[in-house]
Amino acid sequence: MPVGRERQVGIAKDLFTAMGIAREDAARRQDWVLRGFRQFDAPVSLVLTCDRALDGGAVCHFDLGALFYGIVLAAWDRGLGTVINGQGIMRSDIVREVARIPAEEVIMTCVAMGWPDEEFAANGVKARREGVGEFARFVGFEG
Q1: Residues 77-113: pLDDT tens digits?
Q2: Fold observed for domain 3-126
Q3: DSSP label at 67?
Q4: Would you give the distance in Å from CA 91 to the centre of its chain?
Q5: Nearest to 60 by CA among 111, 106, 112, 110
């Protein structure tokens, strides 16, 4: 299993364990999936788009990532919680219709935003991170 996939499975296991959802509990697992489609019931959902003419280049994607990263940091600085959630746009046809996004714009991703519920078990789960040495190599710098 690739390392990235292993981390995804690990965080999913940690989330379900924290929420008390057993692997066999199909109904509660499905409810969690549906919450993701509903943007975790957040009061605000930002949908990031770009002009279709710009979609062919990676620079546009990096720029949009930096924009959303800045929005997330600014929101957290003001006490808001955020979830960058690609699942919320998996049915981009519905998102496009509800948000009145024209066909000339490409839907990239979205961010659910609201006041965090500190009592909700999933909000206490922290992703396990690899050390920098596991995924980066520095050439020409002294450590």
Answers
A1: 999 999 988 887 888 888 899 999 999 998 888 999 9
A2: NADH Oxidase (3.40.109)
A3: H
A4: 15
A5: 106
